[in-house]
Amino acid sequence: MASILQPAKAAAVNPLKSSQPLGAAFAYLGVEGAVPLFHGSQGCTSFALVLFVRHFKETIPLQTTAMDEIATILGGADHLEEAILNLKSRTKPKLIGVCTTALVETRGEDFAGDLAAIKARRAADLAGTEVVLAQTPDFDGAIEEGWAKAVTAMIDGIADRAPGRRREPDRVNILPGWHLTVADIEHLRAMVEAFGLDPVILPDVSGSLDGTVPERWVPTTYGGTPIDDIRTLGDARHTIAIGEHMRAPASRLAELTGVDYSLFRDLTGLKAVDRFVMLLSELSGRPVPAGIRRRRAQAQDALLDGHFHFGGKRIAIAAEPDHLYALANFFTGLGADIHAAVTTTGHSKILEPIPCDSVQVGDLGDLERLADGADLIVTHSHGRQAAERLGLPLMRVGFPVFDRLGSQHLLSVGYQGLRDLIFRTANIFQEARREPVPADLDPFRNREHDDHDRRSTPAAREH
């Protein structure tokens, strides 16, 4: 088991993590007709908006309560109410997802009470729009916690709470982790549907951040999980949660509706995908389709072809806990060693099982210090300077990736994702490999220099 090393520095030198409110907004963006609302200053929202736009290269409907100095001192309930009503009248969203920031959290306001009062007082004005709250201070946690809190908030605020609801035998809830890309979610949907099952995915960024262009201007998200599907999550036969941080939303849904769940810590390794496929076969009562069996055979062949390039390689990874766990197991499963592991927060239970000696909670400055001697750096685009200074190749993963196109369409889950990830990584190793030149193979090269060194040693002089 890995030991968790807490940060010793007073400040982040080159930040690794993104904030909790950004993670919550990310989850809200996976719902149809949604507008995330940052309860805080305008600067907090602007920073998150820049990161989203640079990563997805899309228009992002992100709004703010625009707290000023007076509201910061006297309280922001009025700003919250005004922002919600303005959004309702101007954009007519189906969901307004409120994310608190450090500014208002530090003051210690009663956000849940304020929002409940607003919804009761303005019930007629807000008819047809769900408003949910996730308390996500910037000073605690990271994108992973924010995503999970927003999903839990949507389950709490929208899902019907009747444990005795009629179950639909072919319906399955999927609660994906934040680190699954658009391509990952689309692939999971296709795998579930191949067994004749009907998946309801929450949040579904594959429908809202997949790069399509609407025929007209839409001020909200124009794809994602429909509100009616969230409301009827209790009709499903089973829930599948992906990532340890999705345990809390799955558990909350089971508590409210009685729908049992299965948790998959990752869906990249062969054993994990086998378990996922067998669960789908059990739920559907059908054998594994031939197409999925064929993709498994292709993944096995990729493992055979690719492991020559991974054996003995030293990998330095910086990522959120669940993403770090999935990546570390992928590399060690192919014979590589985790040379350095850096993460954003030390609260997750997934950190101890990571296959390395220690996990440093820190920033990209810690990664640069620990990665000396590695063969590959694995992190998001902000790690490019460290990779350049160390002269190491960089494999871009996670969020944000703003200096490459199509990161949201890269597949890494399922048999096909495993195959693609092997090829993508092995090609980076091959590109970075320095082929020997004839001079390197000359056994007499530097022989005179080596003989002089041997004669100069103390042992040689004594003899």
TrEMBL record:
Region Disordered, annotated ranges: 439-463
Pathway annotation: Cofactor biosynthesis; Fe-Mo cofactor biosynthesis
UniProt keywords, alphabetically: Nitrogen fixation
GO biological process: protein-containing complex assembly
Keyword Ribonucleoprotein: no
Entry-linked Pfam families: Oxidored_nitro
GO molecular function, one term: nitrogenase activity
Residues of the Nitrogenase/oxidoreductase component domain: 19-429
Family that this chain belongs to: Belongs to the NifD/NifK/NifE/NifN family.
The protein, known as: Nitrogenase iron-molybdenum cofactor biosynthesis protein NifN
Organism: Prosthecodimorpha staleyi
Protein's gene: nifN
